[in-house]
Amino acid sequence: MEIIIGKTAGFCFGVENAVSKTNKLLNENNNMFCLGELIHNKQVTKELEKKGLIMIENIEQAKGNVIIRAHGTEKKNYNKAMNMGLKVIDLTCPKVIKIHKIAEEYVSNGYYIFLIGNRSHPETIGTISYCGNNAYIIEHEEDIKKALKNLYISKIKKLLILSQTTFSLDKFNKFVNLIREDTKDKDIQLEIKKTICDTTRLRQEETKEISSKVDVMIIIGGKHSSNTNKLYEIAKKNCTNSILIEDYKQLDLKEIKNYKKIGIMSGASTPKKSIESVVEILNKLC
Ligand code: SF4
Q: How does pLDDT run across 51-96, given as a tens digit for each residue?
């Protein structure tokens, strides 16, 4: 049995930063409040909860302090935190902050904004709050028609396209081409910012490469993790035997035994030790 592990597997920079700083804070404080799940990985968040992390749905539930996770949050939450006198520990990934800044700059220059991303993802919910009133989220191809209709009704002639950091690169390119095609005769000034983060891009490229040469591709990560699900979608296209697991206990070892070449990749919120435990169990099978 040959096992190929993705070089880019494991925590990304933003998640590593959020987890290590939160751990440090929990060593110094009894309780820390975090707005939403710190990262989309149950094992990691459970450990942090044991150390005193309290994950809350609304900022109103915080007492004394609040951590803003790597995905960032809505603009209004910073004002609320200030009014409540909370100490804000902002662990928003710098790459997400950069998108917020781009959005604000273009809003002030009168642009309409299309944000390509998963509508219900916390990062998208946060980013759209920086995009002003003339903005539309495009999650699926079907959304493009409605987005363009709104743009044309608004009579705004400048359009910026942004992306959620963990969106699929292939889909982003496809959507941009469709928008470009529709706007080309309409005197619209089009600005495209491919704000998919490098870590995500490299992971997706590596997943594509590995999954096209293995018998089974194992993607390790949280079921709610956007980037993990994207990796799974990519892997499935090249390797129909691809599976998505949260930890080694979900592996069907009887099934895996039948394969000679196994590929492994993880989402950006998956710690190294989850990958190691999968590798360990596979090595025992060999
Ligand atoms: S995936 Fe990229 S943007 Fe998101 S937290 Fe990680 S490094 Fe930051």
A: 999 999 999 999 999 999 999 999 999 999 999 999 999 999 999 9
| d(CA 62, ligand 1 centre) in Å | 25
Radius of gyration over every alpha carbon of the chain, rounded to an integer in angstroms:
21
Structure letter (DSSP) for residue 134: S
- In the set 37, 123, 139, 206, the catalytic residue is 123
- Indicate the SS3 state at residue 23: helix
This prediction's pTM: 0.89
| Cα 102 from Cα 108, distance rounded (Å) | 10
Respond yes or no: is residue 276 known to be catalytic.
Answer: no
The DSSP symbol for 19 reads H
User: Could you identify the atom of ligand 1 that is nearest to the CA of residue 12?
Assistant: 6
226 lines ligand 1 (CB under 6 A): no
Residue among 99, 15, 64 nearest 271 (CA): 15
Q: Which domains does the chain have, with CATH numbers?
A: 2-10+198-285 (3.40.1010.20), 13-92 (3.40.50.11270), 95-192 (3.40.1010.20)
* Position 6, amino acid: G
Give yes or no for residue 264 CB within 6 A of ligand 1: no
**166 in ligand 1 pocket by Cβ < 6 Å?**
yes
pLDDT in tens, 85-113: 999 999 999 999 999 999 999 999 999 99
100, 162 Cβ separation under 8 angstroms: no
Q: What are the structure tokens assigned to 138, written together?
A: 């495009």
